[in-house]
Amino acid sequence: MIDKLLRNIIKLPHISNAGANAHEAAIEKELISLGFNKASKEELGLSAKEIKTCTVDKKITPNTYVWQPCGSQSFPDFIISDINGNVHYIECKSSKEDKITWNSGFPKDKAIYIHSSGKHNKQSIVMGKDLWDKDDAKILFEGFAQMKKIEKMLKTKLKNSNLSAYCREMYNDNGKIAGHPDRGQRIKRVFDFLAEVRDAE
After folding, report:
1. How far is CA 108 from the centre of its chain?
2. What are phi and psi of 188, to 5 degrees?
3. Which residue range is the domain that position 162 belongs to?
């Protein structure tokens, strides 16, 4: 069922998420049309921490979904269970161009990202682990860790001042999604991942 959901979504045109979560609402509409049942994380016995960190290690009610399980501004936008009750993490991204704005977030390896590109007027799906080069990500994370140390040091030195420093993690990513030369293989890897989880029973 998740496979059919994603295949249906790939056929959709661009949907802006500006204003009223239209992109996410369109995906929920597809979920409902396929017979998925809506629930809350509390009903399924899940915590926000295990959802945010992609560490849910138990099965939940099959063919169930939770929209914004950790709130509207937190990862993921959906958790969805497959026919065997395995949990999958879905994050929706939409842009006028063909890139993902991360703000203070970053791609999670086990998550599936649904991206809507205005430039190409199409939807794409990609695994989180396919979005960032691991070595570059390590450099970024180490850099922000150093900046946090500097921020802490400045707070100590400025303790008698009205001034303060604020180091906000924000990642600029100009990587293409719909226009990526490996788009077809990236999509295939999503379905391969779903099959691996399903067949591991």
Report:
1. 7
2. -60, -40
3. 133-172
Pair 85, 127 in one domain = yes
**Residues 87 and 156 occupy one common structural domain:** no
Sign of CA dihedral 154, 148, 94, 69: negative
Whole-prediction pTM: 0.91
CA distance 85 to 80: 9
Alpha helices in the chain (DSSP H): 2-10, 22-33, 48-52, 134-157, 183-199
The rounded distance, in Å, linking the Cα atoms of 146 and 152 is: 10
Residue-wise pLDDT for 4-52, tens only, equals 999 999 999 999 877 677 999 999 999 999 999 999 999 999 999 999 9
Backbone angles phi, psi at 80, to 5 degrees: -135, 135
Residue pair 89/66 in contact (Cβ under 8 Å)? The answer is no
Tokens of 88: 């999958």
Does residue 76 have a cis bond before it (omega within 30 degrees)? yes
Amino acid at 176: K
